[in-house]
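--- STAGE predict ---
source: upstream dedup step, 1 unique chain passed
mode: sequence only
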Amino acid sequence: MKIKKAVIPVGGLGTRFLPATKAQPKEMLPIVDKPAIQYIVEEAVESGIESIIFITGRNKKSLEDHFDKSFELEQMLEEKQKWNLLKEIQNISSMANIHYIRQKEPKGLGHAVLCAEQFIGNEPFAVLLGDDIMISEKPALKQMIDAYHHTNQSVIGVNAVALENVYKYGIIDPGRKFGQVHSVKDLVEKPTIENTPSNIAVMGRYILNPSIFSYLKAIERGVGNEWQLTDALRLQCQQEKLFALELEGKRYDIGDKAGYLHAMIEVALNHDDLHHKLLPYLERIVEKERIENRRNTRSSSKSII
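--- STAGE serialize ---
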């Protein structure tokens, strides 16, 4: 069955980026010249998704406005004959059929996905989280859709992470491996290093069969006192087969400040009009830091003597 619908939960409060997110959604923070959420929507559309439902919360109005038609802006661009910009702005509002459901309070990813049950109906669907931006020749979600068509079972996108970072993620207990695909024996949400079954982490991309809704209704509050999608997937893999696909491409974890800055710099370097300006500037900063570090090392050596 063709995967036509996607759920994108955006109800979080963005506390790790305060005060920048006090009055604007973290999903609208720019990465060069596009808000982060647009990269996620573009990935979905390039993967064949036709309809998207955002699970929103308070203070998300600017996100809805971004994907809406802007008559005044389009008229101004047309009058000034800025045709390339006009086409780009028009494409944003026509990429996909976009719908919105308000999650009245952030109760966890599992609750957010459950909010989309009536929209999804009885068909497989995608879930994309906005904290992970994937840049690859073949869109990450398309990789997963292809894997789903081979397995006809729910598929989660994964990558290996450093062991000291497993506490940030849902981690799979992998079974047999077939190429880039693992069977999944179990999952753990944000384990400690001592209790983690592996270092293979869920990367915020899912293709789910509609049976997931029955498991979401059966779970209780978990980590963070929230309804966790990971807990529903644990139930699912006890009753059905569940697979994990190792995603190809470059991943940026924009859920924290360092990952966000990495994305900003590397995406900017891929812009032809910015590369020749930005790279020399970064090289000067790196050289300045090296000189300063050498000076500090010499000073410390003299102090010891």
